[in-house]
Amino acid sequence: MRIDALPHVDEHATVIEAEPEDAWPHLVRVVETTFGRPGTGAYARLVGAADPVASGPRPLAEGSTIPGFRVATAIPGRELTLRGRHRFSAYALVFRLEQTGPGRSRLRAETRAVFPGLAGGLYRQLLLRSGGHVLGVRRMLAAVRRSAERRS
After folding, report:
1. Fewer beta carbons within 10 Å, N or C terminal of the chain?
2. How far is CA 9 from the centre of its chain?
3. Is the separation of the CB atoms in 63 and 71 below 8 Å?
4. pLDDT, tens digit (0-9, with 9 covering 90-100), for 28-65
5. Distance between CA 24 and CA 146 in Å, rounded?
6. Is 108 exposed, middle or buried (0-12, 13-18, 19+ CB in 10 A)?
7. Which of the 8 DSSP states describes residue 36?
8. ∠104-108-109 over CA atoms, to 5°?
């Protein structure tokens, strides 16, 4: 299934006091660090993720994997698209950087996913109703913002 065919789940954004090109390495590092934490690989294996371990080129580039995701698109300073699937869902997390003014950019994180069947529906409830997904995405965005602004 194409990423744009996956149903939209949500989108979150933050403004960063840095150029998109300057924020990019911070985005890549935060994403890799977030999904490389202890236990992430075990969780990815538990749910039957297609990509349960980190592999491929570093820094993240098209074809790289992190537990639960494969990098579908990596356009420095513009877009990082992660795609994944497991027993309960097919999903994508799309990060977009855009210039909003001199020395300023907006980082958006869009989630798209489908949750087929009864088990998928239960997984969706657990993931989205618990607030864990929103909290995790917002923490990543805030971490990118803090890191990029400290170094710019």
Report:
1. N
2. 13
3. yes
4. 999 999 999 989 999 999 999 999 999 999 999 999 99
5. 13
6. middle
7. T
8. 150
pTM for this predicted structure: 0.96
What is the structure's pLDDT at 152? 56
The pLDDT-based confidence of 128 (bands split at 50, 70, 90) is confident
In angstroms, the Cα distances linking 88 to 1, 96, 109 are 15, 26, 21
Q: Give the three-state DSSP class for 114.
A: strand
SS3 track for 53-112: CCECCCCCCCCCEECCEEEEEEECCCEEEEEEEECCEEEEEEEEEEEEECCEEEEEEEEE
Place of tokens 């538990």: 46
Packed helices 132-151 and 20-35: angle between N→C axes, nearest 10 degrees: 130
CA distance 151 to 53: 30
Query: How far is Cα of residue 57 from the mean position of the Cα atoms in its chain?
Result: 17
Average pLDDT of the segment spanning 120-149: 95
Identify the H or E element spanning 37. none
